[in-house]
Amino acid sequence: MKIGRIRGIELRLHFSWLFIFVLLAAALALDYFPSSYPNWPSEIYWLAGILTSLLIFACVLAHELAHSFASVRQSIPVSGITLFLFGGMAKISREPRSPSGEFKIAIAGPLCSFGIAALFALLSRLSLCIPLKAMFRYLCWMNLLLAAFNLLPGFPLDGGRILRSLVWWRTGNYLKATYVAHLGGRIVAFVLMGGGAILMFATRSLDGLWLVLIGWLLHALAVGSYRQIRLREALAGLSASRILNPNPPSISPWATAERALEDLGLAPPPCALVVDEGRVKGVLVLERIRKMPSHLRSLTLVGRIMVPLEKVGRASPEAPLLSLLEEMEESGVPVTLITNPEGEVVGIVTKEEILRAARFRADLFMR
Q1: What are the backbone angles phi and psi of residue 251, rounded to the nearest 5°?
Q2: Cα-Cα-Cα-Cα dihedral of 209, 51, 70, 67, to 10°?
Q3: What is the pLDDT of residues 339-364, one digit of tens each?
Q4: H or E element at residue 204
Q5: Which of 73, 96, 216, 335 has most Cβ atoms within 10 angstroms of its Cβ?
Q6: CA-CA distance, 247 to 269, in Å (whole number)?
């Protein structure tokens, strides 16, 4: 869900944000504030809980904006920031090109959180209103916790990125540094999950469940981030011309889905051009037929299930494969038409072929 834009950076909320916002506001209003500050009116508890929950997410946003502004200063464009269940994530166009650039971007977020914590500590001392003083004190500790947690030496946390920058600077090997940082992320994740499980067993309660969930998420992010970086490295320098299919199969929009499967053979390609009277009308994605109930295939025309031409991406043969892959993932259409300067289609590149090329190069050159 889009919520705005700051300096050209699009701000989005993941659906999980609503869940944690309600849960946190309720926990503050029903548990933390009543137990720490009794005898407030219930309306004050709820108002403080809602405002504190909103301010926590504002602090997370400020943390991510600090990373984003540092990235922009390193000439790395940032297209957007997404706030989700346990924090936020900035979408950058590329990784830093030097250890120092990596370090500056990684340290910006924790420094921002430490600065915000100092600000709330000051406001807590100056405030004469008890509910505001309580809110500011809580926000001070939460920002200290946010900074400290992010400095844990595990990728993709900020501490993991700092670790990567140091190993990168020491070894000169970016991929090796990423591997070391990703191992750190997995170790931190296992420690969190193990600690949470021990806490749950020792207290016979669900008190450690959050640690288990955070550890599980961190492990998934560490593994996924490392795979994504290997993918980027494998595709670096490759253009569409290297893998484009100049003679993709074609099918009429008036053919049925069943006939399309018959015409394309036992091992059909992932996509085929839909051509009518010599003109390209769209692209047939075979996965759509596979997901279709078999009794409907003889009744459904290709033209009804094809991706219309206007929704299919276009690129030149010199376009980087990595940018094509990112555009396909964003649009959900697993194919790009490759055109010449006159706008004529000279071939196609599919997501499946890009991933196959990336896996081949990774296995061949990046062991």
Answers
A1: -145, 150
A2: 10
A3: 888 888 888 898 888 888 888 877 66
A4: none
A5: 335
A6: 12
Task: Output b/e per residue, 318-329; b: 16+ Cβ within 10 A.
Answer: ebebbbbbebbe
Q: In angstroms, rounded to a whole number, what is the distance separating the alpha carbons of residues 214 and 189?
A: 8
Residues whose CB falls within 8 Å of the CB of residue 233, separated by 6 or more in sequence, listed in order: 174, 175, 362, 366
> pLDDT tens digit string along 131-189?
999 999 999 999 999 999 999 998 888 999 999 999 999 999 888 888 899 999 999 99
15, 16, 19, 20 alpha-carbon torsion, rounded to 10°:
-140
Residue pair 229/161 in contact (Cβ under 8 Å)? The answer is no
Q: Which of 33-37, 91-95, 117-121, 217-221 has the weakest average pLDDT?
A: 91-95
Interval 319-325 mean pLDDT: 87
Question: pTM of the prediction?
Answer: 0.73
| 281 vs 129: CA distance, rounded Å | 67
- The one-letter amino acid code at 61 reads L
Boundaries of every domain in the chain:
2-151, 240-365
Helix (H, G, I), strand (E, B) or coil at 7: coil
CATH of 240-365, one of 3.10.20.30, 3.10.580.10, 3.40.1650.10, 3.40.50.300: 3.10.580.10
